[in-house]
Amino acid sequence: MNAPIQQAKPSFLRTVKTVAWSFVGIRKNSEYKQDLAQANPFHIIVVGIGAAVLFVVGLIVLVNWVVK
């Protein structure tokens, strides 16, 4: 049987974890639904943009380091 999804207050750390899992692309469907139920859309957008910027800056730094 499916366990009921508990409503919890959205936390910043949980949002970071949710965005990190979305970058990797693997997640159980039940955990994905639980994350969606507990996530604040504004936090997801902010953390997602921040993670994308960090990813791009990291790639630029890595390429510059390898090329030198």
| Poorly predicted residue ranges | none
Total E-strand runs: 0
- Basic shape: elongated
- Overall mean pLDDT score? 83
Could you characterize the architecture of this molecule?
- By secondary structure, the chain is mainly α.
- Helices cover 74% and strands 0% of the residues.
- It contains three helices and no strands.
- Helix 1 crosses helix 3.
Spell out the blueprint of helices and strands.
Layout (H helix, E strand, L loop, with lengths): L11 H13 L4 H10 L2 H27 L1
Helix pairs in contact: 1-3
Short description:
Helix content is 74%, strand content 0%. The chain has 68 residues and is mainly α.
Structural descriptors:
3 helices, 68 residues, single chain, mainly alpha
